[in-house]
Amino acid sequence: MNTRRSQVFRGLQRRLLVLLLLPLVMLALLSAWIDYRSADSAALQQDAKLLRMAPLLADSIIVPPPEGSPAPQLPQVLLAPPVEEFLKDRHGVSAWSLADDVGRVLQGDGWLESPAPGTREPEFLSREYEGVLYRILAQRIVTPAGDFVMQLADGSDPRQNWGRAVLIRALLPNLVLLALGALAMQMAVRAALKPLLDLKDAVERRSPRDLSPLDEGPTPDEVRPLVQSLNRLFGMVNTQSDSQRRFVADAAHQLRTPLAALQSQVEAWAHAADEHGVRLQAGDVRAMRDATRRTSQLAHQLLALSRADSHALHGQPGAPVDLKALCNAMIEIHFAAALDRQVDLGLDCEPATVVGQEWLLREMLSNLVDNAVKYTAAGGSVTVRCRRDGMNAVLEVEDDGPGIALEERARVLERFYRVRGTGGEGNGLGLAIAEEIARSHGSRLQLEAGAGGRGLRVKAEFLAD
Asked: What is the CATH number for 420?
């Protein structure tokens, strides 16, 4: 049952978690895409800012006039305040340089070496330095001292650091939220499915004879229609079962009176035939007497079986039953039959009390003792026992008759089943009735070999009072 429960739970849990987490995953991807679009927009703004800084950086280059020499002197750089502020705001992630047309850096950051642009239009390129990816603006400028290349680098471009930024600022928080959300959803799903799984367990634990309605109180609104449908089905099956049970009980009850009268007449005829010595008529009358006895016993057992139905007893309160007194009564009832068959009927009882239906326990013990006496050969013995064993009360009937083979013990508890080759007048209902009564009292019949491996011991254990 635990395996089926876990399989059902895992199936429902998997569906719910997928349906709940899928929107969260989509939202996380949407958030990352929005971050990327935001970074791309910021990068365009950074490129525009670098373009605005280019003329200011170009104006910062000063070429001093020649002093007595026709050759131009090397340019000097006096950074304009906006450019200086730009570099200060991005300290550690910005750089500038002034290089000649062959790429040799004359002033500024020496690592900014790159080929000179082929045109005078500004060009953008990306370059990584010391773990930082820079966006670099390069532009050729013409001065009286010659052509130079100025470069301005910015490493704070969000587009250049998009992968790391998304991982740190978007994906990692979203992944943490997804993990926490999955854990919270799992707990919520488990709590939400608990009433449904409890309902499943309640149905599985039920006996096939328990057709009482399921409790709708703790059932969620979505599952309540299912419970109501099950209760309607239980009600219909219960009505049909009650109808069949009443029919068997009424038929058996109606048959008892005429069968009793018929048996009395046949017994009288058999006795008269024996007295007059009419052997043929006596044999015929005795056969009729035996058939009448079997029919009368069958009607009685059918009535007992109908009354012993555990569903018919549902809701009836039990009462303390003294098993020792019950065993004494059974000895008195069956003593004459045991004496006729030359069977030693004994008693070995200790005080023991159970809670149940006394008339049903009497019927059960009567069937067990009757079977034991009936199938024990002359000179054999039958012992009725009861005792207290811990929290249980044990009731036993043991004989030293032919016993029952191991492979037949489960089948003899079925209705109308008789072991092949068995004589006597049985109908195959005695042990079935006893088993039904034991079940209605929360027990089962245990069939074992008797002392020394001979005969049969029938035992039932009940919760002691």
From this structure: 3.30.565.10
